[in-house]
Specification:
Elements: E1 3-7, E2 16-21, E3 26-28, E4 38-42, E5 49-53, E6 64-69, E7 76-78, E8 85-86, E9 90-95, E10 106-109
Antiparallel strand pairs: 1-2, 1-4, 3-10, 4-7, 5-6, 5-10, 6-9, 8-9
Length: 110
């Protein structure tokens, strides 16, 4: 089972806001609203999809980001949710409105 740690600072710095397992079917508000700016993935399973939203109800009318895990890594940092990129481990898709880092209000994991 993989672990996802959500951080207060970019590049997985500052305090950990919340840590969850990569179990599919999760849909929750983070323990601290508008704090999360990055994440660290510990052995998260390939095929996992992590979605973070500015909207508290997970609406796509505001900023959101989708992290698709392609390959497990012992430790992988998603340094910001405000960038679209792809490498051997993840595909990150950011849909911009007015900024997402530090404004995350809903998380879904599948």
């Amino acid at each position: 089972m993989g672990i996802i740690a959500f951080y207060e600072g970019n590049n997985a710095t500052q305090n950990i806001v919340q840590t969850v397992e990569d179990v599919p079917g999760q849909d929750f508000k983070p323990v601290k609203n508008d704090e999360i700016r990055s994440a660290k993935l510990y052995g998260v399973r390939p095929g996992a999809e992590i979605r973070v939203y500015d909207s508290p109800d997970g609406g796509t009318n505001d900023d959101f980001c989708i992290v698709n895990v392609k390959r497990a890594s012992p430790e992988y940092v998603v340094d910001t949710f405000e960038r679209t990129y792809e490498d051997e481990y993840v595909r990150v898709t950011f849909i911009r409105n007015n900024g997402l880092d530090g404004k995350i209000s809903r998380i879904r994991i599948n």
